[in-house]
Amino acid sequence: MAEVRCPGLPAYWVNGWLAAVGATVLVPGMRLRWTEELTPVAVLSVEDGDPVELLAVSWPNEEFLRGLPVANDLEGTPQLRRNVSTSAFVARAVATRGQRHSWTLASTLTDLLVDEGDMVGHGRFNLPAPQGQTLWDRLLAVHRHVEPEAGRLDESLGGRALRIRANGLGFDIGRLGSLADEPAKLVDPVVEFLAFFGLAVLPVRGPGVDAGLGGRRSARVAQRGWLSGTDGVIRFVWPAWLHRLDLPGIDALLDVWKPFQKDTWGLLGVRAGWKSVSYRSRARLDPTRAIGSERL
């Protein structure tokens, strides 16, 4: 196996973890493991060729992105904006069912939770953004900042790339500065782009609550990996594993890993895990959202 160690994708960083998983989505057969260091980092491997070069070759173009099931506009279906009606969601789901990347719809929206306005629920990584930008709008924006050459991708995977002024997908806590910094947000567009594809293993669902039933205010969207702790707070939890796993292997591991039963981790090759910590707003009307981490 040809391997590349990726210091730019540490396991404790939500975006880094998602980006590493996203690489296995874009390159079929690519495998992912994490180093055994105190701070594990991603290791990508393939049987034939160079992992970074294969990632560069597999990098989607804008035409591909415009054909994704979650794109704002898709021929023959209603437009999808930030607020999506059940009828628009159903039409898009029917039109794209069975496509390889139908997960882009299933990992961001669900009609198994509908609000009083007949709008479908959003996944927990599908956060609101300025000017009502959709997650797809933000994906397209970061894509335009990347020339998918092996050398450029290697800089990001190696943690050497300069960040650009942008909001990115909107959940990386590393894009925020301190109170002493300028207000501009900074992201690595390569990591942001890959992180979107990491959502492939995190489907969204809900309790199937109908508008005519009671108890709607307490109903919540559920997404794989987001669990309620002993304090009742819902947090994202994710593991770092030692074995080389391809996309189906990662999917299977997430099915059986029990984050709060540490005595079972060794059986699965899980060495470490983290839980998300939400950004605390600086003011009551501060709309900023971000996800940090705390080791389990």
How is this structure best described in words?
This protein is α+β, with helices and mostly antiparallel strands and 296 residues long. The protein is 27% helix and 21% strand. It contains ten helices and 13 strands. The protein has helices at residues 14-26, 51-57, 62-66, 86-96, 103-106, 135-143, 150-157, 189-198, 247-256, 265-268; strands at 2-10, 31-34, 41-46, 109-114, 120-122, 164-165, 186-187, 204-205, 222-223, 226-228, 234-241, 270-278, 291-295. Strand 2 (31-34) and strand 3 form a beta hairpin. Helix 1 packs across helix 8 (189-198) and helix 2 packs across helix 7. The mean pLDDT is 91.
Total helical segments: 10
Distance between the first and last residues' Cα: 31 Å
Instruction: Write down how many β-strands occur, each being a DSSP E stretch of 2 or more residues.
Output: 13
Spatially, the strands of the biggest sheet line up as: 10-11-12-13
Low-confidence stretches: none
Tell me the series of helices and strands, N- to C-terminal.
Answer: EHEEHHHHEEHHEEHEEEEHHEE
**Portion of residues in helices?**
25-40%
Question: Shape, please?
Answer: globular
Rg measurement, Å? 19 Å
Averaged pLDDT, please? 91
Structural class: alpha+beta
Largest sheet: 4 strands, antiparallel
Strand residues, percent:
15-25%
